[in-house]
């Protein structure tokens, strides 16, 4: 399927609830669960809209599965704190989004997580790896400086050192680059930028 078709049709179909040909918008804040086994917490997929959005993004990114959050920082903090624990080390670019940078500075030390901010190049990432490094976090193009790093090379370095890779793909979107095809494990977006119509 062409990328244009994925943008329009992924996750769409005849709605099983309303029988609408197009997915209706459900503006209500209170819903009956669609399936007790599927829904664990009310904000997780209690509307068809959420399922369609996740399917669309997964198809665009060629991802196995996905989760949507109320904000990009909610997604970033959830991913980082899900994979990092006390005693771990994480490598981050020094030009990442300011909110991500501040999050690392404010919370990693509190949780006993060591971190290194490195220049936006693969040599700096490779030289910062330690035995306790478990995750490499990149962003390309960076926000707001638009610096670029070789995604495939970062993925190769990470795999060679048994590290998880996470990329903030907000500025590029899956229309312009597909990090999973380049070997990245986890792709994040903030929908308030280009993915959802830039602000």
From TrEMBL:
It is an enzyme of class 4 (lyase). Pfam families: Cys_Met_Meta_PP. Its cofactor is pyridoxal 5'-phosphate. Keywords: Amino-acid biosynthesis, Lyase, Pyridoxal phosphate. Its EC number is 4.4.1.13. GO terms for cellular component: cytoplasm. One of its GO terms (molecular function) is cysteine-S-conjugate beta-lyase activity. The keyword Amino-acid biosynthesis applies. One of its GO terms (biological process) is amino acid biosynthetic process. PANTHER family: CYSTATHIONINE BETA-LYASE, TRANS-SULFURATION ENZYME FAMILY MEMBER. This is cysteine-S-conjugate beta-lyase.
């Amino acid at each position: 399927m062409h990328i244009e078709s994925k943008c329009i049709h992924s996750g769409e179909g005849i709605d099983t609830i309303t029988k609408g040909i197009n997915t209706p918008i459900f503006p209500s804040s209170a819903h009956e669960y669609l399936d007790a086994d599927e829904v664990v917490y009310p904000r997780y997929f209690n509307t068809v809209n959420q399922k369609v959005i996740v399917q669309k993004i997964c198809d665009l990114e060629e991802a196995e599965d996905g989760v949507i959050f109320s904000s990009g920082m909610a997604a970033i903090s959830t991913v980082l704190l899900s994979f990092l624990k006390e005693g771990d080390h994480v490598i981050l670019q020094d030009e990442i989004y300011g909110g991500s940078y501040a999050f690392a500075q404010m919370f990693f030390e509190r949780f006993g997580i060591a971190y290194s901010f490195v220049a936006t190049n693969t040599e700096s990432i490779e030289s910062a790896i330690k035995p306790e490094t478990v995750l490499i976090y990149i962003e390309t193009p960076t926000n707001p400086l638009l610096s670029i790093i070789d995604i495939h090379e970062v993925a190769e370095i990470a795999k060679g050192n048994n590290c998880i890779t996470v990329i903030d793909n907000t500025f590029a979107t899956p229309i312009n680059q597909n990090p999973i095809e380049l070997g990245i494990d986890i792709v994040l977006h903030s929908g308030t930028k280009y993915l959802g119509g830039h602000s």
